[in-house]
Amino acid sequence: MFHTIIVAGNIGRDPEMRYTPAGTPVTSFSLATSRQYSNTQGQSVKETIWFRITCWSKLAEYANNYLKKGNKVLVEGRLVPDPNTGGPRIWTRNDGTQSASFEINAVTIRSLASRSDGEGTGSASGSYPEYNDAAIDEDEIPF
Fold first, then answer.
1. Which of 4, 15, 87, 115 is an S-S bond match for 126, by CB 3.0 to 4.6 Å?
2. Cut 0.90: pTM above it
3. Max Cα separation, the chain?
4. Closest Cα to residue 54, out of 96, 113, 102, 99?
């Protein structure tokens, strides 16, 4: 069995890299996806869903070196369910309201910024490559 999820949005905070006890790099960042629509009463509704993205090994190093808060990126990976519920991780905010956290282990990260987005800002937007941690040798595909 196999599943994959693809989300595109804006990075909500700078990536944070750390290391496992075995020395494997791990980088995490938040990603906001948004949509706007009109409800049945004709009112405009804005909806934002936040994802927590985790990258491992070389992809973690790539994310830490090239990604910054505000960058537009496309992330492909797999959903990580809460081990207790099998769904999103449920937590309580400081104000007492319930919230859910959707977590993704990234396999591919692709910049969605154009080269002109980074002009004059000193950022690396649009100047960094896509990174795919799941490079597969075609000889290994079973069909």
1. 115
2. no
3. 55
4. 102
Closest Cα to residue 75, out of 59, 90, 91? 59
User: Model confidence over 33-67: pLDDT tens digits?
Assistant: 999 999 999 999 999 899 999 999 999 999 999 99
What residues contact 13, with CB distance under 8 A and at least 6 apart? 29, 30, 69
Q: Which two tokens stand for residue 86?
A: 């099998």
> End-to-end distance of the chain based on CA atoms, in angstroms?
15
8 A C-beta contact, residue 63 and residue 25: no
Q: What are phi and psi for residue 115, nearest 5 degrees?
A: -60, -35
Distances (CA, A) of 143 to 3, 22, 25, 66, 138: 18, 35, 33, 35, 10
